[in-house]
Amino acid sequence: MNSSEKLTIEKTPLNDLLVLKPKIFGDERGWFFESFNANEFAALTGQRENFVQDNHSMSKMGILRGLHYQTKHVQAKLVRVVNGVVFDVAVDLRKESSSFGKWFGIDLSAENKLQLWIPKGFAHGFLVLSEYAEFLYKTTDYYDPQSEVSLRWNDPTIGIQWPLEAIQNNPILSTKDSAGLFWDQIPKF
Length: 189
Fold this sequence. Notes:
Blueprint: E1 2-3, E2 7-11, E3 18-22, E4 25-27, E5 30-32, H1 38-45, E6 53-60, E7 64-70, E8 77-83, E9 85-92, E10 103-109, E11 115-118, E12 122-128, E13 132-139, E14 148-150, H2 175-178
Antiparallel strand pairs: 1-2, 2-3, 3-11, 4-5, 6-13, 7-12, 7-14, 8-11, 8-13, 9-10, 9-12
């Protein structure tokens, strides 16, 4: 674990996938934290990223979005939740990685203020565990619907342990995600 004045970074079991925990400055008036600082991020990760798009979504309890990635205009993402709670998941699709085909999940919430750094070469998705959740993510390339792939959320080869009991075992999926591809059907990096 590396730490600085404003940010702590924790490694996950998946190569290059990182949990970022900001230092919260607070008093009786409220609180403040830097949600992103390019110099701090580069100093701690050794990477200087150029974010080109910020996205903000709202989803209701039980919505499961993902697992998405793009084969062209491949995106790295820095994700966080500003209202509510989600179970956030990343799957390593990089053939040369020692964590290839493995997944990692973590609760991101407005309360814990954790962020997840998802490098290029990962599929990403989340399940909303609260009444609703607002999700923010910065991306290193633009959205390209023509190259987007949806990996099936419940693919048995990957075996993600979604906390479905929190939503009565009934995730709500988009048409696209309901028709997601299985592990042996998707392009990998």
